[in-house]
Amino acid sequence: MKKEWGLFVKNESLKDYVSSSNYIVFFGGAGVSTESGIPDFRSKDGLYSQAWKYPPETMLSRSFFQSNTRDFFDFYKKKLLHLSVQPNKAHQALASLEQTGKLKAVITQNIDGLHQKAGSKNVLELHGSIWRNNCVSCNTSHDVEAIASAPGIPLCSCGGVVKPDVVLFEESLNDNIMIAAMDHIAQADMLIIGGTSLGVYPAAGLLQVFKGDKLVLINKTATHMDSAADLIIRDSIGDALSCFL
Ligand code: ZN
């Protein structure tokens, strides 16, 4: 029977769920990283309209990368390349849960590498990572510093552009990572979803393969999946998961 859901459901229920589960998967969105101080790249700061000529979805598209490479990297370095940010309680709690053997995979839409920084091992990065960068010509991998320290367009010694291994608009997700993510979710008896409104592809599709009996949503605001959840926690993701630290 479905538990009553709402503001009053507290962390104890979450702990009960975890203790009765053997195959937990976590699926996280931008909200997991904002609690570390990483702003959503879509957020408009005061200088936004003066600083950027195009909307972020344009500046982070494949075609813009190819046609306006210098502007792409200008935006990318200022808005996405957060190298000194530290993991928060959510990342740390998930790393601890993985060590208990119950949490089998973290599936993330974030590209900041904070789960790995916190110690998580099995992280499926649907949108890639700022920490991996490859030459578009010879495919040599480059340190992230090659991007961060380049005055303009980062270049390989062969002359090719060094491209971050992040999925741009107009690019498709990595098939192998999607398959692995679906495989984990299909095996899970508990799925925790946090920091995402679940509005964008591929979240909805991934959820459809879940056959377990414990779907937990941790989000500060309502999502269209709320009616399908067994447990809803309206809290910051860090606070909600801190019971596992
Ligand atoms: Zn090269």
Q: What do these coordinates show?
A:
- The chain has helices at residues 11-19, 30-34, 48-51, 56-59, 62-67, 69-79, 89-99, 114-118, 144-148, 175-187, 203-208, 237-241; strands spanning 24-28, 103-108, 123-125, 128-135, 141-142, 162-166, 190-194, 214-218, 231-233.
- Helices cover 34% and strands 17% of the residues.
- α8 (114-118) links the parallel β2 (103-108) and β3.
- The protein has a domain at 1-38 and 87-127 and 172-245: TPP-binding domain (Rossmann fold), CATH 3.40.50.1220.
- By secondary structure, it is of the alpha/beta class.
- The protein is built from twelve helices and nine strands.
- The protein binds zinc ion.
Features:
245 residues, alpha/beta, Rossmann fold, 6-stranded parallel sheet, 3-stranded antiparallel sheet, 12 helices, 34% helix, elongated, binds zinc ion
Roughly what is the average pLDDT, rounded to an integer? Answer: 90
**Portion of residues within helices:** 25-40%
* Structural class computed from helices and strand pairing: alpha/beta
CATH class of the domain at 1-38 and 87-127 and 172-245: Alpha Beta
What's the CATH H-level superfamily name of the domain at 1-38 and 87-127 and 172-245? Answer: TPP-binding domain
Low-confidence sequence ranges: none
How large a portion of the residues is in β-strands, by DSSP E? 15-25%
Shape: elongated
Named CATH topology of the domain at 1-38 and 87-127 and 172-245: Rossmann fold
User: How many angstroms does the end-to-end distance come to?
Assistant: 29 Å
Order of helices and strands, N to C?
HEHHHHHHEHEEEHEHEHEEH
Level-2 CATH architecture of the domain at 1-38 and 87-127 and 172-245: 3-Layer(aba) Sandwich
What's the alpha carbon Rg, rounded to whole Å?
A: 19 Å
Count of individual helical segments: 12
What summary fits the major beta sheet?
A: 6 strands, parallel
Side-by-side strand order of the widest sheet: 3-2-1-7-8-9
- How many β-strand stretches? 9
Ions and ligands:
zinc ion
